[in-house]
Amino acid sequence: MELAVFKQNGEDTGRKVTLSDDIFGIEPNDHAIYLDVKQYLAAQRQGTHKSKERNEIAGSTKKIKKQKGTGGARAGSIKAPNFRGGGRVFGPRPRDYSFKLNKKLKRLARRSALSYKVKENSLLVLESVSFDAPKTKSYISMLQGLSLADKKTLFVLPENNKNVYLSSRNLPRTKVITVDSVNTYDLLNADSLVLCEGSVNKLETLLSL
């Protein structure tokens, strides 16, 4: 499978890059994608939710009325959950929502997400991306040259580039990551995936292990 390589300004270089069918051309596994996205979202949860149960409520432990003869139900404590201001029954407690997935399954999910992007013609390969200085205007000009200004985009760089990252940071519909940070959620969440030419080989190496 071959894709044209474009310059940063949107011009065609006349060259093509060959994509591995084992990475970009497999039959997508939807269940693997589901599990990987579920794990990613679960790991984002803080898990710091907490409500007080009756043993944690500040209040009197005095029996609030006599046991019998009132015509109403028994009541032993103002901290009981059926009274206003009482403790909550089986309330949320701090917990870790993350869970483990096998590496092979995660690699399958990412290969599946990349294959979906190729099938949808949502994958673009750039020769390279670089700016002389951090400038959002330069980044917006690049998006306009690539006809991606109105789309949610994910740029995958082969290595850290501070100028590119800082130039994109204020824009809500674009994200810049490196190859080692690629995840299934980001791949599927973007309308268009932009890979630098140097990222292709690194991705193929990373996902073929």
Automatic annotation (TrEMBL):
GO BP terms: translation
Swiss-Prot/TrEMBL keywords: Ribonucleoprotein, Ribosomal protein, RNA-binding, rRNA-binding
An example molecular function term from Gene Ontology annotations: structural constituent of ribosome
Entries under InterPro entries matching the protein: Ribosomal_uL4, Ribosomal_uL4-like, Ribosomal_uL4_dom_sf
Region of interest (Disordered), ranges: 46-78
Superkingdom as given in the UniProt entry: Bacteria
Cellular component terms per the entry's GO annotation: ribonucleoprotein complex; ribosome
UniProt entry tagged with the keyword Electron transport: no
Pfam name, any one: Ribosomal_L4
Function: Forms part of the polypeptide exit tunnel. One of the primary rRNA binding proteins, this protein initially binds near the 5'-end of the 23S rRNA. It is important during the early stages of 50S assembly. It makes multiple contacts with different domains of the 23S rRNA in the assembled 50S subunit and ribosome.
Family named by the database record: Belongs to the universal ribosomal protein uL4 family.
Protein name: Large ribosomal subunit protein uL4
